[in-house]
Amino acid sequence: MTAAPASVLRGRYPELFRFIEAGECGLGYSPKVREFWLRVRDGDVVQQISFCPFTGQALPDPLRTRFFDELEALGLDGGLADVERAPSEFQSEAWWIGRNL
Question: I want to staple 90 with a disulfide (CB 3.0 to 4.6 A). Which of 3, 84, 86, 99 is the partner?
Fold first, then answer.
């Protein structure tokens, strides 16, 4: 069993997080950018999903573009290479929670 990242969204999507933790369906969640995904091949190939596959409930909009826009505004414009150098709030959901996104 794989632990899913801690998330404020767990209460809204308990079934989805239960399956993410079970690690049996290839489902995942990236809290920094608020993306849910389905692994479609071995390795790093994933497909973003917009609806919970178990309940049909719409998932929140992903924030990947906004995440990198925020980093760029801080002078971190190296894309993925700068993510680890970003302030601590950008290492979790904290940045988008604090902005009420």
Answer: 86
Q: How far apart are CA 38 and CA 29, in angstroms?
A: 9
* pTM of the entire predicted model: 0.86
**With the C-alpha atoms ordered 6, 20, 28, 15, is the resulting torsion angle positive or negative?**
negative
Burial environment of residue 50 by CB neighbours within 10 A (0 to 12, 13 to 18, 19 or more): exposed
Report pLDDT digits (tens) over 6-40. 799 999 999 999 999 998 788 999 999 999 999 88
Q: Residue 67 is which amino acid?
A: F
Query: Residue 47 — left, alpha, or beta (φ > 0 → left; ψ -120 to 50 → alpha)?
Result: beta
